[in-house]
Amino acid sequence: MIDIRALSKRFGSLVAVDGVSFTVQRGEVLGFLGPNGAGKSTTMKMVTGFLAPSAGTAVVCGHDVVQEPLAVKERIGYLPEGAPAYPDMTPASFLGFVGAVRGLRGAALQRRIDELVSTVHLEGVMRQPIDTLSKGYKRRVGLAAAILHDPEVLIMDEPTDGLDPNQKHEVRQLIREMSPHKAIVLSTHILEEVEAVCTRAVIIARGRIVADGTPAELQARSRTHNAVRIAVRIASPGMTVGVRQELARLRYVDTVEPCASSADSAAFVVRPKPGRAVLPEVAQCVRAKGWAVEELRTDEGRLDEVFREITTGHASKGGAK
Q: Which candidate among 140, 195, 267, 279 keeps its CA 20 to 30 Å from the CA of 256?
């Protein structure tokens, strides 16, 4: 559905996007991640035809964005950062205008608008000037405009920006419902959003892709992946040292780090050696020592930790969005 090959964009001496390549299939929800200035928005603008690439190609549903820009735009729904709209229009007039541009007319257009008003919850503000709406409502108007023509490809820049937790949940649910029939790319700074709705994530830094995988694969690169969190009830402060020493002696344990403890319990994070799992060893040790355990669980890893590790040293202070 989306095929990006060695896509690059220069603004004078600034290389905003530097040879980016990836594909997106129908049914995929791709999280496009990166620090500020990494080139995310610039890449999305090239894919949607709002910016011409300096080099490389982007093909959407078999159509080149440079050679066949109208064919590409017919198949794409685009929610830019900030959800720009005509501020003097109302949501009703703006969606009517967008629908007319998309070739919808009469009763068919009104039915589609009514459907989207219910879907994104615009009831009560349809006759109010967009300029007077809250940030969250403006974002919902932009989302309705992006999906008005039921596009095959949906590209969204920070789709839940400005929404409250309930509204974020609704948008994520809508994305999940649409995803089997579309190729969806969303840029976000909210890493929990990637875990919630994305089937794959691409991380970009200084205009280049530095990671590409499923959220689970990226989490597996975290220092806390497969770490064991354990809390043991203690009879005396001296027992804390003994528990830590016993855990540190285990064959596949790399480090044992203390964490939030209390007067009657000792808690640790037990990190495994690379490629190892230590939960079976820790559980066997607990049974052998007869410890009273308050908590014993494996950590799946932290996506934010992986993001920082991957992008540290790559992100520049300047650059393109």
A: 195
Residue type at 237 in one-letter notation:
P
Instruction: Quote the pTM value.
Output: 0.83
CB 193 within 8 A of CB 26: no
Instruction: Report the alpha-carbon angle 156-212-71, nearest 5.
Output: 40
Nearest CA-CA partner of 2 in 68, 80, 58: 58
The SS3 of residue 77 is strand
DSSP secondary structure letter of residue 205: E
pLDDT in tens, 197-213: 999 999 999 999 999 99
What length does the chain have?
321
pLDDT digits (tens, 9 = 90+) for 277-287: 899 999 999 99
Q: Which pair of structure tokens corresponds to residue 159?
A: 């789709």
CA 45 remoteness from chain centre: 18
